[in-house]
Amino acid sequence: MRSKDPQPRRAATLLCALLATLAALALLAVPASAGWLSPGAGPSGNAQKINTLYWIVLIISIPIFLGVEGALIYAMVKFRARKGAVAAQIRGNTRLEIGWTLGAAVIVVVLAVVTFAFLPAIRNPPPSGPEGLDLRRAGLTGEPVVEGGVGRQPPVPEDGQALNIDVNGQQYVWRYTYPDNDENDLNNVFAYEQMVVPTDTTVVLSIRAQDVAHSWWIPALGGKFDAIPGYTNYTWYNVSEPGVWGGRCAELCGRNHANMVASVRAVTPPEFQRWYTNKRREIAQANEAAARQRQQVESGTPAPGA
Amino acid sequence: MAAAETTTRTKTLQPLPQIVARTVERAPTGWLSWLTTTDHKRIGIMYLVSTFAFFLIGGAEALLMRVQLAVPENNLLDPSTYNALFTIHGTTMIFLFVVPIMAGFGNYVVPLMIGARDMAFPKLNALSFWLLTSGGLVFYASLFFNPVEVGWFAYAPLSTGAYSPNGGVDAWIFLIHLTGIGSLVGAINFYATIANMRAPGMGWGRLPLFVWTILIYSILLILALPVIAGAVTLLLTDRNFGTAFFDPSQGGDALLWQHLFWFFGHPEVYIMVLPAFGIISEVLPVFARKPIFGYKAIAAATVVIAFLGLLVWAHHMFATPSPDVLLAFFMISSFLISVPTGVKIFNWVATLWRGTIEFKTPLIFCIGFISLFVIGGITGVMLAVFPVDWQLTDTYFVVAHFHYVLVGGSVFAIFAGIYYWFPKITGRMMSEALGKFSFALMFIGFNATFLVQHSLGMEGMVRRVYEYPDIGSLAALNLVSTIGSFILGLGVLVTVVNVVRSVKKGTYAGPDPWKANTLEWFTESPPPVNNFDAVPRIRSVEPMKDIRRQVERQGALEPPHAAPAPEHSVTA
């Protein structure tokens, strides 16, 4: 038939080579770097579980990928037009078609079951570990400063004890407010950009936004949670070792979206306690100084240095 | 009427062909004739050419972005220019290229495939095209004032007046309205044409699969477009007339925008990819010299995908503050949609199986499509697992995923369609050598650009950032991606050269150069204004195969100069 024409054979070879390169690249990438192939597991249980779930899904999908690409390459090599070859006039095969429909359905059922099996460990925070900060003694048992907003229920560990930090997204910075046990929300410890937390302690974040939508993401400490004005979103983490983990806003929030960075610095509970007490003292001192200044202004004596 | 004739098929009756076209109208010439035409073929050509021009513009925008991202902390583009670029790139590729080019193929090919004289409403057809063009013009005109910077998804509140006060968003809303009305009118036209104007004997079970996908594409457009039209109208009144649908400080709801947008936005994905499936289903059997494997399963899978496609929208919103039951529902519905999609892929591979495959450029693009679309499908299932999505969403992993679906999928199918139907549209063949060269560049360039972007996402690179720090292997992977994008661009240019060259210099194609299966190959290339002098009665999904077989049979009995007349013709 068309066998005199060398073109089809060359094209088939070229195409197979291309597909084979693609498959080889995908396989070679396995030992290359774990960071290239998976979102990675940080020092927090939720991120580790997500990573395991990711690997299960990836491993289930590899045979499907290889099967389809393999069948495609095989068909191209084996069934290319040659002299004397006749195409089989097959219009379908009901058994085969029902078979692969059911096969695909079974795979997605397995994926759903695996996901639901992993979900509780990802969603629900565990209690703080034995090395964690004693929140009662530290005076940090306060609720987050939630000012209304609808959405999910906050996750609470079984023992009811978690360090509740308020995360507020604004163009283009993250602000964190720490709880205390008094009624005055204006004297709470707060920080921008870097969040300091104690290790081995369950931290629950209440995520909100005050202008446009943002998305909270520290890859090593679990997934993204959108900060949407009018809503409160929640996530948690429990960092097992001291260190600094970076991340950035993941939802387009305007021109400086790329520079809206965040980081979490985990320190040992005693160190955290020192940092926190220090901050409280600084705030108290600043408040006292401000009160003095107000008094002086009100009584008419000029403030020193004014 | 067609269905009635199917059931009252007669075996013995063999009337003479009745021809009503006693004179063949001369095709009008001159630029004015193009402006005023209502001929589906000319409108189809204008669709194909103008949308491809938008594809080249959108591609140039993509290359500019890749240049900016080639090295870490680049300061070539400022953030507002970069934000404008990715917004205009996404909007162009979706609203001005992939969706309307499918309408272009549909316009040209559907009436020919079903044996019709024209579309059901030729004047509405022209209106559709000119609405699309004006939508593109008003949108690109905003480039000279304040281009839109809020992403093609235009999330509120960022897109509201308080945060994006300039007119770019309004120009974008105008584009959505104009192209939306154009597509809606076009969709109704396709539906009316396919439902009413099929050749005698062409029941639903003999409708070419490309026509099936254009039918479902039209239904999806009719269902999804009013929702986005409503949503952007709410945004328009929020921005300009003091309403607060999306402003939480006045009792509005910022998440409402996301639900409305994705209720349209996800069916839009299937609007872009179903006609691509249709092209694949037409081209594969022609070059494998084998009937499509499981015609009914493929047609049914198209319908099921469209139905499920309307129920998966919130998988774009897994990271929002939504209850777990909602996330679980949308995970499962997204899983389910992979079943009919998988069925299609298996059927296509089975179509090649035991065929005699001729490696012409259209077929090679189809194989490229299957091999790349599988990857996009698998990463899609991974993203549907919502805890995994929490890590991957809004990173380059997602960018890679949907480019595998929309470039590896839709664009490769569009190129298959261009190479396949070019001989019909122009009457000339395209260069096979240039076609294969173009494919090789595009395939290599595409994978170099987007395969590494999966890893970029895993390493934590988020989307829509104009710069990134030099950490991990971000710099190396981004450089690979940028180099790949230029190879991909070069591959596209080779096809442009091929088209320009072949229009004038290609060898004559004749009516049926591929020995194809469907009715558009029954008429001359290019087809005359009236398409068909006579339309044969349709007896299977592959009417041209029946006709060729009949001609061969008659040739064996009669002298070789016997005319290849259809056995049972009716008025065109």
Percentage of residues assigned to helices of chain B: 55-70%
Overall form of chain B: globular
CATH topology of the largest domain in chain A: Immunoglobulin-like
Give the termini separation of chain A. Answer: 100 Å
Number of domains of chain A: 2
For the sheet with most strands of chain A, the description reads: 6 strands, mixed
Write the element-wise H/E pattern of chain A from the N-terminal end onward: HHHHHEEEEEEEEEEEH
CA(first)-CA(last) distance of chain B: 14 Å
Secondary-structure-based class of chain A equals alpha/beta
**Average predicted confidence as pLDDT of chain B:** 92
Average pLDDT of chain A, rounded to a whole number, is 86
Total discrete domains of chain B: 1
Q: Which chains make the largest contact? A: A-B, 101 and 94 residues
Strands across the major sheet of chain A, in which order? 1-9-6-2-3-4
Low-confidence spans of chain A: pLDDT under 50, at least 5 residues? Answer: 1-5
- Low-confidence parts of chain B: 1-13, 565-572
What is the oligomer described by this structure? heterodimer
For the record, the CATH class of the largest domain in chain A is Mainly Beta
Class derived from helix and strand content of chain B: mainly alpha
Q: What topology, given as strand order, has the largest sheet of chain B?
A: 1-2
